[in-house]
Amino acid sequence: MKKTAIIMDSTGYLTNDIIEEHDIRVVTLNVNIGDETFPEIDLTNRDFFGKLEQLSGSSTTSQPSVGAFLEVYKAVLAEGYEEIISIHLSEKISGTYASAIMAKDLLENPHIHIFDSGSSALGLGLLTWAAADWAREGLNAQEILGKLETLRPLCELYFIVDTLEYLHRGGRIGGASALFGTLLQIKPILYFNTEGIIDVFDKVRSKNRALQRVYKELERALASQKPHRIAVMHVGAEAEAVSIAEELSQKYQGQDIRIFEAGPVIATHVGPGAVGLVFHPWPH
């Protein structure tokens, strides 16, 4: 019998090599553009922004159905896994967690565990990756959940938005503030606060200054002298992400630094050109 299966939703944005190596299952959120709905995992960012221009110029996102979770949970159990840990984006910003809970309740299986990452994008992804590492080591579900509880507050996410237009479209910032911020080249640094809600960590003039501000947070964390797993994430800004990763690799040799692209669900809210860092101590 296999021991513990690890499942995440599509906003974790781990690369395919990590997903395949650790046998992580992914339940997709959906992107709604005009009258059409697309599973996030079927869209690249290039596809997404192309369709956005062709169809309506705006998009929304929606959580997976309860049935989508049921299908994955049943399939995993049928493969011989004894336990499931299903890790998802913050319940404060999406109904995804609630859909997973409903699926668990319908199956009436006490060995299915739903975990709220309190985050999204690589905040969720890095926690899932850690859980998958522990599962491969043979830890059971309760042991993994205990470790996730201690790692979650240590996982920091900072995201720099290149334009305020998409936040304005989604109702997360007023029109006057969006115009004012654009004129002044304000670059808000977003993060997830302790309640699992997207919040403004700082507002900085120019993207370079915003990056330097985020670097200070990473430097603070690395002052502990502990090795870290560091994710450079971006939305359609691969060249910039590569540059950031190279700079950090030179400065912090020996740290595990990788590049990940956040997909259309996150892109809906932050737009193209966004970049950020996510990091936590590892091994933990």
TrEMBL record:
Gene3D superfamilies: 3.30.1180.10, 3.40.50.10170. PROSITE patterns: DEGV. It comes from the Bacteria. Keywords: Lipid-binding. GO terms for molecular function: lipid binding. InterPro entries: DegV (IPR003797), DegV_C (IPR043168), DegV_domain_contain (IPR050270). This is DegV family protein. It comes from Desulfitobacterium hafniense (strain Y51).
